[in-house]
Amino acid sequence: MTIKERYNLVIERFSRSMPDPKTELDYDTPFHLLLAVILSAQCTDKRVNLVTPALFEAFPDPQSLAAADEATVFEYIRSVTFPNNKTRHLINAARLLTEEFGGELPSDIDNLMKLPGVGRKTANVMLSVVWNKAAMAVDTHVFRVSNRIGLTRNSTTPRATEKTLCRHIPAELLPKAHHWLILHGRYVCKARKPDCLNCIIRDLCLHYSRSTK
Fold this sequence. Notes:
Largest sheet: none
Number of domains: 2
Number of helices: 12
Number of strands: 0
CATH class of the largest domain: Mainly Alpha
Oligomer: single chain
Order of helices and strands: HHHHHHHHHHHH
Structural class: mainly alpha
Mean pLDDT: 95
CATH architecture of the largest domain: Orthogonal Bundle
Shape: elongated
């Protein structure tokens, strides 16, 4: 099977099984999605969704969060991973949004990555989810699943995985593909015990073919 054939078949299967995939982070505005994505680093979406309703109500916009003190914000997010660092990231990102961007979220990767707590993965999440742009955020699920399936070969960095996926997946499908790979990794192609028997692409998967030899 050629790499092109593998991509085409994987896309076809996921298109049928998940025609309209969405982020599992709850949010009501792009600004609040940014906060949720920053909080989700090395933390589950389920945990983040437990703390964000009160956080969003207390801080509806960048201006209100920029004026907050660390002790106050910390109390809202204390149950997520690395709450001290994330408290500072949230406040400083809000301040930069207020001071440099007029309270509006930038829609390009370079300016998004100027925000504290925002790396390339978080910026790409914002671009694909909020603006439906051709961006591929590579988290641990995307990185693992892409290598296991055979969409990437011996990829050693998230950036290398991102480049390969963007080269082979049609631009208009990249926002969906990001969710396909994340959700597949979260619920089927798990890190420790992949559920190969319930996988819709196991016949296309290099990991499965090797494990059954």
